[in-house]
Design goal:
about 200 residues, two-stranded antiparallel ribbon, 10 helices
């Protein structure tokens, strides 16, 4: 199997999570006829691409569930293309893998929110932490919650995920996201998936 080397752990994970089992690779002859090199890069398709994606996924499955959820929430696409042809089709469908990771993190985040904890508020905050564009006022209105409660939950969840970079205590500056990505980068470097010199300490 051909091997590709990625610039970062994020690139490797994104490749694996975006790789479609429905991709069919061109033969080397077809590529040659188009004048395209059969060389490397992140264009592995067919069995080579599936093998590379499978190797990366196998490594991810070895992570604790918290770290796996953080990695998937950060790197997986929120939506996948859909070409079902139904009249109601918008051309995309929710990515169930991303949804499951967000759900796991939403449930786990309850331990970090004091007082009354609103599931829908926490879910919206977790989604916001992983790229969904929403402001806290909209979350409060949509969830029928107090803006101050939403703001407090947001601060607690963000500290848990991303750490508190302003804290004087070193352990508080690091969030679960930093820990998860550092572990993945080290492991991918060990098995030769990353370019040399890009490993997190």
């Amino acid at each position: 199997m051909s091997e590709i080397v990625f610039k970062s752990a994020f690139d490797a994970v994104r490749f694996a999570l975006c790789y479609s089992s429905q991709q069919y690779g061109e033969t080397p002859m077809a590529k040659r006829l188009r004048g395209e090199s059969t060389g490397s890069g992140m264009g592995l398709v067919g069995l080579d691409g599936a093998g590379q994606a499978g190797q990366i996924r196998r490594e991810l499955w070895e992570l604790p569930e918290l770290h796996l959820s953080v990695i998937v929430a950060r790197a997986a696409p929120r939506d996948l293309p859909c070409s079902c042809g139904s009249a109601c089709c918008s051309g995309h469908t929710p990515n169930l893998e991303w949804q499951a990771a967000i759900g796991w993190l939403t449930r786990a985040s309850a331990a970090y929110c004091s007082g009354f904890s609103h599931y829908r508020v926490r879910r919206a905050i977790v989604e916001k932490a992983f790229g969904v564009k929403r402001n806290l006022e909209d979350i409060a209105r949509d969830c029928d919650a107090n803006v101050k409660t939403v703001s407090n939950h947001n601060a607690a969840v963000r500290r848990w995920i991303d750490g508190n970079k302003k804290s004087a205590v070193a352990a508080e500056r690091v969030g679960v996201s930093d820990v998860a990505w550092s572990a993945v980068e080290r492991r991918f470097a060990e098995i030769g998936l990353l370019e040399q010199g890009d490993v997190a300490a």
